[in-house]
Structures are given as C-alpha cells and as structure tokens.
C-alpha cells in the first residue's frame, strides 16, 4: 500500500509507534473481510473491498478468495508479522485465517494486495495432534512466532491455550502454555512484554456455543467463562486467574492500551453487557473494575423479559482516547472518551439495526436510555439487516467501519433476515476532537448483492495493519 503521507517510520513491518501509525500512516485503500457463506454447501470467502474514495471501484468487492473446504467459519484474522517486529527485515505479507468450526487455519499470501492467494493450509488433523481445537484470535509475536488462541480440546470440551507457529516456515511448533495449569476457557488475547504479561479472555464450551445461544446456558459458570487469565510472557505460564463473577459473564474482546508501557486495558463482557478495566497493582497482581454498564431494556415479545446489550466487539483508538463498542442485541455502536478511564464519557452513539427496532416484534416497555424504539436504517436503498458487530477504525481515527455477523448459528437464531439477505458494511465518520459518530449515507458494501454468494461479513483487516492487530513494544 503506498505510503501517501510520506511516513518515515512506516517502512515496516508495521509502524515505529502508535502515534507514528496515527499521524503518519497511510489512509486505508483496501480492506480484507473474512466472510462466512450462508449456503452450507459452499465454502467461505475472503473478500477484498476497495475503500479508496478516489477509485472507480469504491465500495466494491474487487476480489473473492474462496477457501477449498466447506464448513470452516472464518472468524478472526491476524498477520505473520506486525509492529511488534518493526525494523526486522521481513514483510507483512501473510494473513492468518483461523477457522472457528473446522479447526483449519489458512495462510494467505497478500503480495498481490488486491488478489491474495492461499499459501498454505493447516489441517484439523495437524491441529488436533496438539490436543486443541476451535481456533480464534491470531497475533504475531516479536519472538518470530504466530500465536493462535484455542478455545477447546479435540472433543469439544473447553480449555484455553495457544498454538505456536513459526512465522517463516508456518509449521506448528507446539502449544504455547507451559506447566500443568491451564485456563478453563479461551477466546481473545493481547500481550504486553514490558509487564511480562499475556492476558486472555473466555467465551464458552465449544460444543455448547456452536449450537446457538441459550440464556440458561450463559448463567451456568461451567458453560460460560467469567475470568481473565494472566500469563507470564517470558515463562509462558498461567500465573493468575481473575474471576469477574456473575457481573462479568463472557469477557470477550480484550485490549491493552496501545501505549506499550501501559499497565491497564479493557475487556467487554458480552452476556452481562459491561466493560471492565483491568490493571496491575503495586504488588504485581492484576485487578479489575467495572467502568461501563449498558442498562438492559424491559421488553415483551422476546425470549426473556429483559434484553441485555450483548457487547460483542470493542476497540481502542491508537491515541488511547476513545473506546468503541457494539451492542449486538440492542443494535447500537457507542463511542466513549476514556481519557479519564475510571469515568468514561459517552460521546457518540448510533443505531444501525438490532432487535428493538420500531417495526420488530419486540416491544420495549422500560428503557433507561431511549424515549422510543429506533427506526430501521437504510443506506443507498438497502435496509441494514442484523446488527452492528465487528468494528475497525482508520489509523487516524476518523473512520469507523462496521460489519454485521457474529457467528452463523447465532445469526440464524436472532437475525434470520440478515442470513437471508447477507451482511453489509457501513462507515461512520468520527469527530476525534469533540467526540461523535455520523453515518456516511454514501458508503455501503453489500455482501448479499450476488445471490450466488450471500455472505456474512465478520472481521476486517487493512493490508498495512490496524489498531486491533498491531501491538507495540517499549523502546527502552
């Protein structure tokens, strides 16, 4: 991708610092979107989307890379190398696509950015040799390895661990965790070598959540996680399990602040619909404090008399000023100013779908926040089905991209029209000075236009890296 801002510290891989990425990095021109096929007889697709407003292909899917197998459930993605390896004479040219259902991992050659190809496939048999399954988050490591979080054992029971893959040969080396102590569940993770820490979150038992969402299951602590797991980065050992209790069910997306010396981060808890700050205490132990609670809505015509927000994604801007989150049940995207992290300030909110729309079967009879149910949203004549889910922010923080799929069984359960019509991607313009979100009514990527390829769009990645895949190391 051209460095159109003349970035002197972006020669790679990645960027020298978060501020260099934000102030000097290029505007995104392409986005890779991991998409699940709605047809069970067709394979998933990696879409390349043109987001360059000066391009004749603006808002178009310019390439589709089809996976060679069906039933994968492409979900999250990462890179062979990122800003944690800045200055290393290697290229960020391999996108890692773990599969949540099939237990495969695809390694995608992005040398041709507009038309990537498959470089290698890691088979389920190879994954299962290490006693793990249900691949989720991928991050590159400054040690020359790719780490992929795993949520289960080979039989579908829960456990948290990581596959360790050589980033040059793309061969599995081992599982990452040393010692007998293992996490009860797995999901997302982030590392912070300055504090000798890798922190991982928890979802659920794979054989349970793959069947769909049941509130009865989510209240069972043996089926849904409630803890943050803190590992020694150097020893690769699980050192502390921090239980958030019944007010922190399913802590999913987890982020340290981008400042590589920061000893604080955030995690969004899906089921309990709140955000916890986690932080290092003087004695070296980690603690957590709830800083945001999305109030439930009292409803009729839904599975329960109260509807939680269901926070399914969070991200932090590169200057560590703003937190963004999506409420997949309620249907809104929120922006909080976290300059004072103990007292976040809601500075932007916009509804883009969800389960409480004015024309839905759900009637809201008690709401602490809204005076009326939000209306459906249309962009360029297309109704936004489903609900906002995955988020990706431009490096400069002024554009927030939003897709709609969480996981096909859950999509089918809660938003069948979304599965029928396919996902959309929209763009929110961000006021980075005062806070605020505004829908760009001229931007729409429709993943349901081609009726032979109706797709559910999930995570997004820029070829040059972004604020959810890049991790920085302290310079001293």
From TrEMBL:
Family the UniProt entry places it in: Belongs to the selenium-binding protein family.
Entry keywords, A to Z: Selenium
Record protein name field: Methanethiol oxidase
Molecular function terms from GO: selenium binding
Superkingdom assignment: Eukaryota
């Amino acid at each position: 991708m051209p460095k159109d801002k003349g970035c002197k510290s972006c020669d790679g891989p990645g960027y020298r610092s978060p501020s260099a990425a934000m102030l000097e990095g290029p505007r995104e021109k392409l986005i890779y979107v991991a998409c699940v096929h709605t047809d069970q007889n067709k394979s998933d697709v990696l879409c390349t989307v043109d987001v360059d407003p000066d391009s004749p292909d603006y808002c178009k899917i310019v390439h589709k890379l089809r996976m060679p197998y069906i039933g994968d459930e492409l979900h999250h993605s990462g890179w062979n190398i990122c800003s944690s390896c800045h200055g290393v004479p290697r290229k960020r040219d391999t996108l890692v696509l773990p599969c949540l259902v099939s237990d495969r991992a695809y390694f995608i050659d992005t040398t041709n950015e507009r038309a990537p190809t498959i470089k290698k496939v890691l088979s389920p048999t190879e994954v299962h040799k290490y006693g793990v399954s249900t691949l989720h988050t991928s991050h590159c490591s400054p040690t020359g390895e790719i780490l992929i979080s795993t949520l289960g054992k080979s039989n579908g029971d829960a456990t948290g661990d990581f596959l360790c893959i050589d980033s040059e040969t793309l061969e599995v080396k081992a599982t990452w965790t040393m010692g007998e102590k293992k996490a009860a569940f797995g999901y997302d993770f982030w590392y912070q070598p300055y504090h000798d820490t890798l922190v991982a979150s928890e979802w659920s038992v794979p054989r349970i959540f793959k069947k769909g969402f049941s509130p009865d299951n989510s209240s069972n602590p043996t089926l849904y996680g409630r803890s943050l797991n803190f590992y020694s980065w150097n020893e690769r050992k699980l050192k502390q399990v921090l239980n958030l209790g019944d007010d922190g069910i399913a802590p999913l997306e987890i982020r340290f602040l981008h400042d590589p010396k920061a000893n604080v981060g955030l995690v969004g808890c899906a089921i309990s619909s709140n955000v916890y700050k986690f932080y290092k205490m003087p004695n070296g132990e980690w603690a957590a404090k709830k800083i945001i609670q999305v109030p439930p809505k009292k409803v009729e015509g839904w599975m329960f008399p109260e509807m939680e927000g269901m926070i399914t994604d969070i991200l932090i801007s590169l200057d560590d000023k703003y937190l963004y989150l999506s409420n997949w049940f309620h249907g809104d995207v929120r922006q909080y100013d976290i300059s004072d992290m103990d007292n976040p300030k809601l500075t932007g909110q916009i509804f883009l779908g969800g389960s409480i729309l004015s024309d839905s079967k759900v009637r809201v009879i008690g709401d602490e926040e809204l005076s009326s149910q939000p209306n459906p949203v249309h962009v360029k004549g297309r109704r936004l089905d489903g609900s906002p889910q995955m988020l990706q922010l431009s490096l400069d923080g002024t554009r927030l991209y939003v897709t709609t799929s969480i996981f096909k069984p859950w999509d089918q359960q809660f938003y069948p029209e979304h599965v029928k019509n396919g996902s959309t991607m929209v763009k929110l313009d961000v006021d980075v000075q005062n806070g605020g979100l505004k829908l760009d009514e001229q931007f729409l990527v429709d993943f349901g236009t081609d009726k032979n390829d109706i797709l559910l769009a999930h995570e997004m990645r820029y070829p040059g890296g972004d604020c959810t895949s890049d991790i920085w190391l302290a310079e001293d």
